[in-house]
Structure formats: structure tokens, C-alpha cells
Amino acid sequence: MAVIRRKKRTEPAGTRWRFYTAVFLLFGVFSVLIARAAYIQVISPDAFSLQGDMRSLRSSSVAVQRGTIVDRNGRELAVSVPVETVWADPKRIAEREALADERRWQALAETFRMNRKELVSKVDDPSKRFVYLQRKVTPSEADYVKQLNIPGVYLKTESRRYYPTGEISAHLIGLTDIDGAGQEGLELLYDEHLTGTPGKRVYRKDAEGRVVEEISQTDAQQPKQLTLSIDQRVQATAYTELKKAVRYNQATSGSAVVLNVETGEVLAMVNSPSFNPNNRAELQSFRMRNRAVTDSYEPGSTMKPLVILSALENGRHKAGDSIDTSPGWLRIGGRRVSDPRNYGELSLTEVLKHSSNVGVTKIALDLGIDSLLQTYADAGFGNDTGIALLGESIGILGDRRRWSEFETATLSYGYGLSATTLQLANAYNIIANGGLKRPLTIFRQESPLPAEQVFNPDNTRAVMHMMEEVVRDGTAKAAQVPGYRIAGKTGTTRKTKATGGYGDEYVALFAGIAPVSDPKVVVVVTINEPGTDDYYGGTAAAPVFSKIVSQTMRLLNVPPDNVEDTQVRAAGFGGDE
């Protein structure tokens, strides 16, 4: 019987090696994939998440308009309005070969008053995705851009600041830049208050542009409104009269301030020359200064009522006292103080009425420098008014140990110190308010701010009646207002030169109160460097006061308190004089 022998199976050479090599390679590949996945998912997921989000996440902002600024009656002084801005996507323009249509680009350049090559140079770099072509265009320009229909050129809505009152309130309100940030005045000082915070919505879109997920939404924080104490009617009146006076007197500049006596609110603050904040192309820096708070001058004879008040406050004189000013001059320390003529014996009222330098000098020397400086300081000189406006000057009120008698004398008639138009108005407001001193404010007040009693009401009332005689039959007749009792004082000062001493340029001032029976407003007018021979406070500044007060009394419905004035006419019964 034959025996069948099975042959032993043998594996081809190298098979096992190839098997292990394949297993090792597969294991290695899977290990790399697992390690890469772990790296992406665990160790460094942010970069890839960001790339995914860039493809699917979208965000949109909810714009807020800048807050409005209104006067005390709600009239808009600054408001934001929607306008169109033209922008371009250079990459899109290159893809659509839009630059080949030269006629459309030429038309667009002419619309923006630009050279075509200059315009094209803004969009010839396809690596950019956004460039401005023209910011905040007019509605007609925006409509024309739509009609041109240039591929890659688009419109977006922005806001533009508009000032309905133009140059009338420009110094006070200020202006913004093209991006809406405050640059001057209240626009700059209260920029955060007016700005607000835009809202934001974040959502996810799929490949077809459909919203598939709302991620988050932040509500916009609306800006706040500024309600000023300004009465735009009074502001417009004051500006119109001041501008005419500056032009008529050929003056370098002028300022005027109107205060509410009872509350310390500023009803008007104007300067000339001014500027138009709606036309930024023609802005000039010298026109943009709020001179009523930044420029200080020696106040001259407008300080004399305070000298009389100081004498009454310190018990050195009584209202009925007299001063001997003969022979019309006196010599102090080798210097001479004089009046235009010898007035002889003058009552305190007549000292103001004739604006006697000799009279107030004798009163000041009798008072002493400390008492005089204290009265000036109590009236607010050498300090801020509390109004907190940009660039406010505190003026100059000397504080040193030794004063010569001549320096005391010059201080009594308004030389040797300096004050702004607003500071002078603040001092007269204290007199009008019965000696009450309260901070001035540019914002409407529901109730008056806390006040400090710095002078005796009887003494301030006596000084106010003395100043009434100045207007009735003194140096300020031009300040009279038909139907109203007016108190005030003129001032004319020579300006110092840069090289020292005094030059031939003057400042004309008038500060007054109306009406005397129940004071409602204080008005101060400053005319800087009149170019005519009538550079006196009584001829250059007082008439402006009269016109401002006359219209202000009517606008505020203040009844006449001088019914005996023959110039008063009942409504509807006026006739030939």
C-alpha cells in the first residue's frame, strides 16, 4: 500500500516582512491622523475655529445717532442727519474690469470735483477690499452715483452733524469732525455724553446665505440729549446786534453775555467774528475762539460800583456821603490821577455818574488794599465762574504782600487786574441778585443752584440805584431802554502793548441790569479795539446793550417798570411823535 506524503507548505521569502511593514505603515498613518485630530480638537482648536467662523459667522452693528443739543425751549442747536458715503471694493472692480469704462469714472470724478487719475488711483490695488471715495455726499450726488451703476462702487449710510443756527451759536456749541467726534465747544466737552454705544448682532449663516443660528445680540445704548440754558431767540438777538456793532465800530472783535439773574443761567453768549460750523472747508482758528470766556481785559470803570459797594460793606461810607474831588486831580507817589474836569464835591452817586477817578481813588485809599481785594474776590474776580467751559480764563487778580498807593488807586478804576466778559457779568449778577453769589451754568435748571450771601442786600440795592443814575443822566445815556429802568456802568480801557506800557488801542465795555425794580437779566457787552473815534463804552458798547435788552424784555414778556417814560406806546396806539 502506497503511502502518500504531504509536502510541507513554505511561505515566499519576504512575505512576513512586507506584512509587518504594511501594518506598521497603517498604524503610523492612523497614529498621525489621531495625533492631528487631537491637536486640532484639544491642543489648538482656536485657529481652525476662527477659520470656520470667518466662513459662517456674520455680525452687524445697530448704529445710533449722536445726541442732539437743544436750547431751553427745545429748539435744536445741533442734530445728526443721515447721509450717504461712497465707497469702493477694488478687488470687485478688478474682477469686473470696471476701470475699462472710462466715461463712467470721468463722470464720477467730476461729481466729486476730482481728477479722474486721482480717483482711479484709489481703486487700482485689487488686494484692497474697502476704500472711501467720498464721505457724506449730498442726496443729489448719491442719486447720481446710483445711476452710474459702476461695479464695485457702493453707498453706505452714515450720519452728519448739522447746526441749524449756524454761526449764531457756533462758539458755544462747537463742532465735530467728519467721523462725528467732538472737536470744539460743548461737542468736545460732552463728547461721551452725546455719543452713545452702537448695538451689535452676531449670527451664523450657511453656504446659501441663510441664517441658521443667532449667537448674540447687544442692545444699543442711546446717547443723551443736552438741554442748554440758552434761549435761542435771545441768542440770535444778541449776535445780530453785536455783529452790527463790531462792523459799525470797525472793531477787531466783540462779545456779549446775557444772564438770568435769579438762576445764574446763561441766556445768551455770543462773539464776533464767528464761523459757520456747517462749512468746515473755510474754518479759521481765530474765528473759533469763545472770546466771552477765553479773552480777559482790564475792566476799567465798570469796577467802580464795586469800590462803592466795598465802602458800604466795610462801613467806611454811607449811601448819602460825599467825596471832595477838588481840584480834579491828585498826585500819588509821583503819579497823577485826574478827572476830565474839577467836579468838586460829589455824592457817591455822582462819583459813579461822572465816573470820577479821583473820587473812587480816595474811597479805595480810605478802604485799604485788603478790603478792596476781598470785595473783588467775593464778586468772583480771579476765579472761575463755575460754568466749566473749555478754555475759560480766570483773569488776573493780584495776590501779593505789598501794594503801592498808586497801584491801589489804579485798581479802583479797573486797571492792574483783568477779567473776562463772563466774569464781569457774574459780578453784576451778584449785585442784581441782592448779594447772592451762585455758580453760573450753561444748562437749563429746574430750580436755582445753591447760592452764597456775599454782600448785604441793602448795600447792593443802594449801588444798583446809583448805577441807575449813571444811565438816566450820566455817561451811559445810550443804554436807556424805553419803558424800563436800567442800571449800569460804562468802561473804557487802553490796552497794554507787548513791549510794556499802554498803546493806542482801546476796549469799550458796558455792564448793566434790567429792570431795576425787579432785576431779570444782566447784560455785558465788550467791543475790542474799535477803529473809530467813538471808542468809549458809552458810545460803542452801551447802544448794543440797549438794543439787546429792549428785545430781550419783549421776548421774555417782562412788563415795563417805567410807565412814565414818554416813549412808551400802548400796542396799537402808536402815532407820530
UniProtKB/TrEMBL annotation:
EC top class, as a word: hydrolase
A GO molecular function held by the record: peptidoglycan glycosyltransferase activity
Main localisation: membrane
Domain annotation Penicillin-binding protein transpeptidase: ranges: 254-549
Reactions accelerated catalytically: Preferential cleavage: (Ac)2-L-Lys-D-Ala-|-D-Ala. Also transpeptidation of peptidyl-alanyl moieties that are N-acyl substituents of D-alanine
Localization: Membrane
Pathway connected to this protein: Cell wall biogenesis; peptidoglycan biosynthesis
Pfam families linked: PBP_dimer, Transpeptidase
Active site, UniProt feature: 301
Keywords on record: Carboxypeptidase, Cell cycle, Cell division, Cell inner membrane, Cell membrane, Cell shape, Cell wall biogenesis/degradation, Hydrolase, Membrane, Peptidoglycan synthesis, Protease, Septation, Transferase, Transmembrane, Transmembrane helix
InterPro entries in the cross-refs: Beta-lactam/transpept, Beta-lactam/transpept-like, FtsI_transpept, PBP_dimer, PBP_dimer_sf, PCN-bd_Tpept
One Gene Ontology term, aspect cellular component: plasma membrane
Protein EC: 3.4.16.4
Gene Ontology BP terms: cell wall organization; division septum assembly; FtsZ-dependent cytokinesis; peptidoglycan biosynthetic process; proteolysis; regulation of cell shape
Residues covered by the Penicillin-binding protein dimerisation domain: 63-215
Family, as annotated: Belongs to the transpeptidase family. FtsI subfamily.
Record's function text: Catalyzes cross-linking of the peptidoglycan cell wall at the division septum.
Protein name: Peptidoglycan D,D-transpeptidase FtsI
Lineage: Bacteria, Pseudomonadati, Pseudomonadota, Gammaproteobacteria, Alteromonadales
Chain's gene name: ftsI
